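Troubleshooting: if your tokenizer reports a length mismatch, compare your output against this known-good record of 114 residues.
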Amino acid sequence: QVQLVESGGGLVQPGGSLRLSCVASGFPFRLYTMTWYRQAPGKEREKVAHSTSGGATYYADSVKGRFTISRDNAKNTVYLQMNSLKPEDTAVYLCNREGRNDNWGQGTQVTVSS
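Known-good structure output:
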């Protein structure tokens, strides 16, 4: 049974940092591209970043240079280090296998506000 559990969100001031974690289970994590998404109220889900099984990464233009995705295959965990946060980064952040639209976790709320 696939499970994805996100954590690490919170309330942070503009310019601050957060590190999100997503612990996965139920599938061979090391073989999959893992993706972080976010969804703000009233907006569609947006792809933020991904990390391939080979170590390649992708970032949306809106977060490039500020966010860093990494993974620890031994811990079945993918991380998202978020620096220089802006109010427009406020959203629920979720992870999933690339291209999948099932087995979503509960996400973790990130609120950037002064």
